[in-house]
Amino acid sequence: MQRLQNKVAIVAGGATGIGAACAKRYIAEGAKVAIGDLNIKTAQELAASLGPNAVAIHYDASDAASIQALVENAAATFGRIDVLHNNVGLTSQAIQRQDTTVTDIPLEIWNAVLTVNVTSFLLGSKYAIPHMIKGGGGSIINTSSDSGRVGDVTRTAYGASKAAIISLTQHIATQYGLQGVRCNAITPGVILSPAMKDDPMLVTLIKPHILTPEFGEPADIAALAAFLASDESKYITGQAIACDGGHLAHQPQIADVRKFEAGGAR
Asked: Which of 59, 158, 176, 235 is the catalytic position?
């Protein structure tokens, strides 16, 4: 399928994982893609593998000037912007170890997570929307998370940032919809990225709580993102769409019920 033929997409945070899968899918669907990432070497290698319709641009999600430069460089390179996929997230193990409870989290960790995970999405949209309006419209896709919908015993800043992304998505959709700009969020559950595969304990704990036989892969998020980027989703905006194997679709005790029923059958 070539649903994105003649469209220009930016993937902010596109060198690895979900971002790289989305960049690959956008190219396969006919788009020209600007891959923004702090890891410029990996971004360049990915762009080279995708051919002449992909370009890598250095992108620091904690720096407003860098975010603006990503948007303007992409527009200058390809002539327009039709799709912005805000995908970056501060998820390093060093940060996550300090992203704890409300009373214990260091303020600098809270601020760092919110700056990268939320403010960069605001700024990317701020700079891309005028280009989209000039070109007749566009689609903004924000990567949120199941963690933005429910509470947890830890990762307070991460969860709050992902909830803020959902609200930001709704505000963008409301403010710019009549000018042809749509905005939707994707809320992934557990996705078997390389980092997740290195945490078998978490995988073991969550597996009983999904409704599909297996966890999702980055390509599953990319498939949904390609649909949201395309004109096929022209009547969908302001939505937070889960891609989580039904993780949050059921009563919280369902895993215990299944375990009980299995024991009773024996």
From this structure: 158
Q: Provide the residue ranges of all domains of the chain, joining segments of one domain with +.
A: 8-265
CATH superfamily placement of domain 8-265: NAD(P)-binding Rossmann-like Domain (3.40.50.720)
Which tens digit of pLDDT belongs to each residue from 156-207? 999 999 999 999 999 999 999 999 999 999 999 999 977 677 677 777 889 9
Q: Give the pLDDT confidence of 79-121 residue by residue, as tens digits.
A: 999 999 999 999 888 999 999 999 999 999 999 999 999 999 9
* Contact yes or no for 187/244 (Cβ under 8 A): yes
Active site residue 235: no
**pTM for the predicted model, two decimal places:** 0.95
Burial 77-102 (b: 16+ CB within 10 A, else e): ebebbbbbbbbbbbbeeebbeebbee
Taking the alpha carbons of 155, 216, 59, 161 in that order, is the dihedral positive or negative? negative
